[in-house]
Amino acid sequence: MAVKFLLDTNVVIYLLGGRLRHSLPQGDFGVSVITEIELLSFPALSPDDDQVVRGFLDEIARYPLTDAIRDRTISLRRQFRLKLPDALIAATALDAGATLLTNDQQLHIVPGLNVQAVELT
Questions:
Q1: Buried b vs exposed e over 95-111: b needs ≥16 C-beta within 10 Å?
Q2: Contact yes or no for 104/10 (Cβ under 8 A)
Q3: pLDDT of residue 69
Q4: Is the pLDDT of residue 95 over 90?
Q5: pLDDT band at residue 1, thresholds of 50, 70 and 90?
Q6: DSSP string covering 36-97, please?
Q7: What residue ranges define each of the domains in the chain, with the CATH number in brackets?
Q8: Closest CA to 107 of 88, 95, 37
Q9: Tens digits of residue pLDDT in 74-94
Q10: What average pLDDT does range 57-86 have in this prediction?
């Protein structure tokens, strides 16, 4: 069985921008619905960049907002005072049993969340 990884928004930006020092680890990848929203709602996104992002999203699993993720997001925000997008991404990774690839240091405080940072060039 392949390892599951959830890509945080910052890792997708680094990946699409060619800023990762190493390739992503082997395994299955997905993104949270909030990552999709963050990527596509960036105000300075050019039409070409929009096409690249949409092409990437078409090739990767996308995790929708479920009742379980909603409830866990609420709990994480209350307990750790995380920003809404961070709490939603962390809750999605926990719900999916996925390792979260992120360079957001604040997410390392969430118990039970398997977090892995990426190296940048």
A1: bbebbbbbebeebeebe
A2: yes
A3: 97
A4: yes
A5: low
A6: HHHHHT-TT--HHHHHHHHHHHHTSEEEPP-HHHHHHHHHHHHHH---HHHHHHHHHHHHHT
A7: 4-116 (3.40.50.1010)
A8: 88
A9: 999 999 999 999 999 999 999
A10: 96
